[in-house]
Hints:
Blueprint: H1 3-25, H2 36-58, H3 65-75, H4 78-81, H5 95-128, H6 130-153, H7 160-163, H8 165-177, H9 183-206
Amino acid sequence: MTRLRRAVLTGSLTATIGLALVLGLTDPAPPRLYPTHFFVWNLVLAAIPVAFAAGIAVAGRRIWLIPLGLGWLAFLPNAPYLVTDVVHLSNSTGLWRHVMQYGVAAWTGVILGAVSVHLVHERIEREFGAVTGWIAVVFSVGLCAIGVVIGRFQRWNSWDLVTQPGAVAATTLNWARSPLAYVQSTGVALAVGAFFGLAYLAIWSLWPPAESLPARH
């Protein structure tokens, strides 16, 4: 990516996050069940995967890919998760303002997530080949679909993976054993996963080819 494109991408992401934050912080009447501080907190969580992905992109040694990759995977579902925040529109006044607010937040989450996936995709492809790179993409998109179930319907968050891993695993395995018994959560997971996957393909198709760099060891 050229320096100009990198600057435009950074500026665009910063401006998008800023717009979403302004709409949230200046909301005169946030939804009853979703006050402003939750809105802002979810935006912060959605930005964390980009930080981990940037670290993966520039890490000098392969050994750093493991801790950075685990951190990235833990927080990545928070990005497309913002799409599901529209559920709070039913508990709001000032509907049109909130439609814009949550629409911008959802767009912000999807773009942040897609950019972070692409940064990781490029690094893995450079290190391990094209097939491994696309396997990582499919795995991460699938993980996001599962993350929506964990966060929206089971009400766990990324921190619970550290503080209560057993409980998170138990509830998730219970859903995985019989997904058709939970039609709503499974349907939403599939829809968000498909949407996020298609969004990534759009980003990938428009992203200029990576510079030809030697693999880092």
